[in-house]
Known about the structure:
- This protein is of the alpha+beta class.
- The chain has helices at 20-33, 51-61, 105-123, 146-157, 232-244, 253-256, 309-318, 333-339, 342-354, and strands at residues 2-5, 8-15, 38-44, 65-70, 73-75, 78-80, 84-89, 95-98, 134-140, 162-168, 179-181, 185-186, 190-195, 201-204, 214-220, 223-227, 230-231, 262-265, 270-273, 275-278, 284-286, 295-298, 326-332, 358-364, 367-370, 377-380, 384-387.
- Strands 15, 16, 17, 18, 19, 20, 21 and 22 form an 8-stranded antiparallel β-sheet that branches. It has a 7-stranded mixed β-sheet with strand order 1-2-7-3-4-11-12, with helices on one face.
Amino acid sequence: MSFAIGANMFFSKYINKIERQQLQAQLADWKLLYPGLGVLAILPEAEQSRVGDVQLACLSEGIPLQGAIFPKLIAAQQFVSSGVWLIGFAICPAWFLVENVESEQAVRHDLINRAIGHALEECGSPSDAKTPPTLFLIFDSMTPTIGSLLTGIYHKFRKNLRYAGVNAGSETFQPMPCLFDHEKVVENGLLGMILPDDLKVTLAHGYPTPKKSMQATSTSGNRIDKIDGKPAMEVYRNIIREEYGIEITADNFYDYAVHYPFGVVSALEVLVRIPVAFTEDGAIYCVGEIPPNSLLRLLRAPQLQESECVSTLVQGIAGNASQADCALLFYCAGRRMHFGKQAEDELVEFKAQSGMKQIAGALSLGEITSDNVVDFPEFHNAAMVCIF
């Protein structure tokens, strides 16, 4: 399956059994048609040992490679634990892989900004372009300061770029090497690429947001220590008891946390933050950074029939004159935990409403997109991201 975006062509091929001979045959066919080919490979966590086969296949054909490992892949509107998606670019985009993004703050911002600057120089994107190109980022999900890193990138490049991205890694939230190129596999890294200026990205989560707010009075990275001056877990437990009649305990925390996430109130919207762990002294760890003194709201994840996520995504697609017949879709792992078996129903509904012939993608661990006002990059949980 292929689809056109401006002067660029994308190709997607799902190979359900990773064998080097089949990989090389597919890559050779593409290379014959498109000598400037570059490949983005996405694998599920269960296939992490097969990254070397993908690397060797690309090396054998002389094809530039970048890739990431996600909890699962999306294939035929299902979440699968085997195989590989090959996303081919007829013209290899300018891209980079940065290691050690959690080094000392000044060092890491310099590493990332220099990598982005070099990529922009390589693709020749003018700084005064009317429609800026999209910087697509794939972070290691174990990076606790993604929000700060995005802010640093924006302060350097501002509206010269649009921003989109996802998080890779293990659904267990245990460290693992999850980003790679043709020769290495790294953890604590950042993969980035400059995509065409007519690429479309749309994101939605469809979570209703209540008006009652509280304040995260003590935070560090993705950890909330205190809310309104009290241990975060105590406040979280009390609100859920009072509003929903549910008694949160150490044993059932993981059963309920995905259904009752925090919302961080930003200038333009409410960003979902799903709790994933807690400490004995009452701190709560979330997927995604929580800035100090943030206003928080306790959210209730919607039932599938209540969610407007698919319709919002489809409206974003329909609002663009340039239509594609294939989409790259990332679906938050926390969203899947909430909806359970109905998550695949949402994939089926998205394909039906969007009219896309094929959906390639993966289960992600956090999502990124620009807001619609100043193109500021924001980090989300529980969202669906469509790139077409």
